[in-house]
Design a protein that fits this description.
Elements lengths: L1 H28 L30 H16 L17 E5 L5 E5 L2 E2 L15 H12 L14 H18 L3 H14 L29 H20 L21 H12 L3 H14 L2 H11 L16 H8 L1 H10 L6 H19 L5
Antiparallel strand pairs: 1-2, 2-3
Helix pairs in contact: 4-8, 4-12, 6-9, 8-9, 8-12, 10-12
Length: 364
Amino acid sequence: MPAFHRAVTAISRQAVFRGAQRQHVVARSISASALKSAIAHPITTHGPPPKAPSPTSANPELLQKDAALHQKTEKRPLPGKPSVLKKRFWKNVDVKQKPDGDYQVLLDTRPIRTPSKDVLSIPSTKPYLAHAIALEWDVMTTAQQALKNHLIPLTSLTARAADIAAEDARGETTTRDQILKTAMRYLETDTLLCWVPEQNAYAADEVDADGKKPESLREAQIRVAQDTIAFLSTKVWPGVDIQPILDTDSILPASQPQATKDIILQWISGLQAYDLAGLERGILAAKSLLIAVRLVAEWSETFREVQRPGRERFGIEEAAEASSLEVRWQTDMWGEVEDTHDVDKEDLKRQLGSVIVLVSGETR
């Protein structure tokens, strides 16, 4: 027993000594104040502990209250928006031809107007455009849908062309100058002229299952671009020199020759209102001036002399492929993101299709 007591005494002394050391170190490194012991306050509450919360679905009364509150919220009109927008205030949509030959789209008896409050008038050579606009309004279920441009692409595009025509009649060039500036800016970074650099000479060539070398992204870009460049340099701008802007290892795009810029600028300046509005949408959709120019030249009623009768024209599918070639290359390799790539693809076709409907007509 004396040995046991001596061992306990020794352990206690060591513990006290270590505790003193620990207190000394903590006091020196963290704080100079003296350590204080925690104070345990007495429990002052009485009664059993509270019940655990139960799901809302387990309480029928709460479900009824939530449903009633939800119905009130739905019926309550949004601030600043009249409830009439949630209803379709017209029954019939008709296309009427005026004595001067132009078309109007009527909602019952009221003609459609542009954002500037002018009556939307469609040229007599574009009956298909008038009926397509009427179809846009006929499929609407609420008047609120007319406030969303993506639901009325042809209406908004035709209104843009009508505004340009109205400015031309007044001798103003505000909108034209804006479109010209945008178009020339896109020429400096045209999607059709951005090619990936050449492959390293020492890199291993990829082959498919049949042992053949597949077409590379650069080869596909050159093939698609040269077809459009050849058409533009022979039919639209004869003799113009169009150079690739990203064909080297540099990340800075190369500028086109000044003569090329002057010819393109003069050509855009002479476009009619409907062709100019279609060109603007084509540029913004395809991110390419050259693709938009070819689309307008192939389908516009004012460019019959450059169109090739009996041959397949440069249409929606070709323009969409040329403007999204790199995206398609990547999705073919890695797959599409659902509700993203497929939606973007269809939206691009919708916008390019609206350009064709706008600029085409029955002029011979």
